[in-house]
Design brief:
single chain; alpha/beta; 6-stranded mixed beta sheet; 18 helices; 22 strands; 35% helix
Length: 528
């Protein structure tokens, strides 16, 4: 079996491949997409970092490919749905660079506060700018941490050791969990208002892209400093430049950019910005660890069928995987649906299996529910290995029960999610051999295929309601492919599920909500 390493990988990982009997490894970095596509058909596994783009077009040419291994966490450069359709395992190495990235953020805070890059540059240029480069202490300053995942929590801990006062905002972690760790949980607005430093540790998602922009800067105290070692695009670079230029922001430190490399641009050239070329995970220790981890995972899968740290498949044997695959897909979809329906941090998840499951081990199905539920929040950090651990870390109680009652279905999976604001129940089943269907949401019965662009609409059960928003969608060139209508038990309100040809934008949602008979609209997105 042949393994291709297409990005720079630590020597320890390459050596593991070379010494493994029955495997042949080729190290071929810096390939263009066309060059990679021309040779990928010869390989059983592909090992990458962030440079190689694993697109659907590339995967179509990968006739032998069984696994893609990412030495690191982020998988923005991998088309995971396309790989899953082809049965290709996608693995990452979570945790390998967590400490390294957290330490880099702390280093950025110190470098920014004490003008270390400017001091170095001035001395090398023959100047002695001692008075000009007076810095500030971080002692007793307030650090606002946005995102309390693995990296954010380590940054908070290190900052506390430096005697900073730490406040935290994470809408997906219960405040009690944050306070249990010894930090103050605050709203985003309060974090902006109080922080002397703000450090960002969230994945780049639809809701976090452009999170820190003009209106956010306006809410911050004067002379705040911004640090981003997470993902480019979370901070609006144009608005950051304007805030630096106006003096509202005293300084900023960026390790990541919207486009990498960013090239020559006015933000990078700004005197109050310090920056590094995505070095958060670049230490000798981290590179060695992720290289060894990814090599070990690829070898275990190719030689023994063992799946570890896969983001699109659980850690199970091949035989069980074949039997469970439709249920795993359904569970992941139901978890994703619940993530989009739930409001507020999740407190409890109850999973009930009803009917005949033929003695199957359903624990991987429960994990698939959790992975689908957490993926929109923590993105690449969650997989089938660590989903239960991440749920526990976030204070989420998980309950699993089985019963003989499956209503009129052969088997039924019901997922109930409890937050401080609401309880939502979703039930699903398999039609035929592998057709996933959601058949009940709360008290509404329906038959929903959880794929593509959907929307959930609540409206008053009065004439003209459906026509009003259908007409509005048409005016915005949005076509309704399918529609299902259910009625609340009281008969006063309808629930409508739409499948549209394109995603309904936020601006269109706002216009729909202005219609007199419409109560709410929730766009839902699923991998096709």
């Amino acid at each position: 079996m042949k393994v291709l390493v297409s990005d720079d990988l630590g020597e320890a990982g390459i050596q593991m491949f070379q010494e493994e009997e029955g495997l042949e490894v080729d190290v071929n970095t810096g390939l263009s997409p066309e060059e990679l596509k021309s040779i990928i058909g010869n390989y059983d596994a592909l090992v990458i970092r962030s440079a190689t783009k694993v697109t659907e077009d590339l995967l179509e040419a990968a006739l032998r490919l069984k696994a893609v291994g990412r030495a690191g966490i982020g998988l923005d450069n991998v088309d995971i749905p396309a790989a899953t359709k082809r049965g290709i395992i996608v693995m990452n190495t979570p945790g390998g660079n967590v400490i390294t990235t957290a330490e880099h953020a702390i280093g950025m805070i110190l470098a920014l506060s004490r003008n270390i890059p400017e001091g170095t540059a001035s001395l090398k240029a023959g100047r002695w700018d001692k008075k000009k480069l007076q810095g500030r202490e971080i002692y007793n300053k307030i650090l606002g941490v946005i995102g309390f995942g693995k990296i954010g929590s380590i940054v908070a801990d290190r900052a506390r050791g430096l005697k900073m006062r730490v406040i935290v905002h994470d809408p997906y972690v219960r405040p009690e969990q944050i306070e249990k760790e010894g930090y103050e949980s605050v709203s985003l607005e309060e974090l902006y208002r109080r922080s002397d430093y703000i450090t960002i540790h969230v994945p780049r998602l639809k809701d976090t892209t452009g999170l820190i922009k003009k209106d956010a800067f306006e809410q911050m105290k004067d002379d705040v400093m911004i640090i981003n070692c997470a993902r480019g695009g979370i901070v609006d670079e144009s608005d950051l430049h304007d805030a630096l230029e106006s003096g509202k922001i005293a300084g900023a430190a960026l390790d990541v950019f919207e486009n990498e490399p960013p090239g020559i641009c006015k933000l990078v050239e700004h005197e109050r910005l310090i920056c590094t070329p995505h070095l958060g995970s670049s230490t000798q220790e981290a590179q060695a660890k992720v290289a060894v981890d990814v090599a070990s995972q690829i070898i275990d899968y190719l030689k023994y069928g063992t799946i570890l740290n896969a983001v699109n498949f659980p850690s199970v044997t091949g035989d069980l995987l074949k039997k469970l695959k439709p249920l795993l897909t359904l569970a992941d979809q139901m978890g994703s649906l619940q993530a989009q329906l739930a409001q507020g941090p999740v407190e409890e998840v109850s999973i009930e299996y009803g009917g005949d499951f033929k003695g199957l081990d359903l624990s991987p199905v429960s994990i698939a529910v959790l992975r689908g539920l957490l993926a929109p929040v923590v993105k690449d950090d969650v997989n089938f290995v660590n989903a239960r651990i991440l749920a526990k870390e976030r204070g989420i109680k998980v309950k699993e029960t089985t019963s003989d009652d499956s209503e009129e279905y052969i088997n039924l999976v019901t997922v109930r999610v409890v937050t401080a604001e609401m309880t939502t129940t979703v039930s699903g089943t398999i039609f035929g051999k592998n057709q996933t269907r959601v058949v009940k949401i709360n008290n509404f019965r329906l038959e929903l295929i959880p794929q593509g662009h959907l929307a959930l609409v609540y409206n008053l059960d009065k004439p003209g309601a459906i026509g009003s928003f259908a007409t509005l969608l048409g005016k915005h060139n949005i076509n309704i492919d399918q529609m299902q209508v259910g009625q609340e038990e009281t008969g006063k309100m309808n629930i409508i599920f739409l499948k549209t040809n394109v995603r309904i934008s936020e601006k269109v949602v706002e216009k729909i909500l202005e219609l007199p008979l419409i109560i709410s609209v929730t766009p839902l997105e699923f991998d096709t």
